[in-house]
What does this fold into?
Amino acid sequence: MEELTKALKVPEDKFQSKSLKSASSRVANITGYLSEAITVSEFKELLLEYIFDGGTELIEGQYKNKDMNEMNLLIKYKYMNWD
It folds into this structure.
């Protein structure tokens, strides 16, 4: 069992060389890429138009009680369960 433990132990330097050096180097502020300042709501609308090719009318809807109950059951028995 001791040999198995040694074989599975990862050297610290190997782990550190693979880790992310800086999270800020992997993210950017969107405003730096825009030609003019816009609100979050305007950005959301532009993003949705781009995703849906601007040719689809987007209608915001609401879930029915039956749908919500089914989603809550999934959450409880599938996603909140460690098994």
Summary: The chain is about 50% helix and 0% strand. The chain has a mean pLDDT of 82.
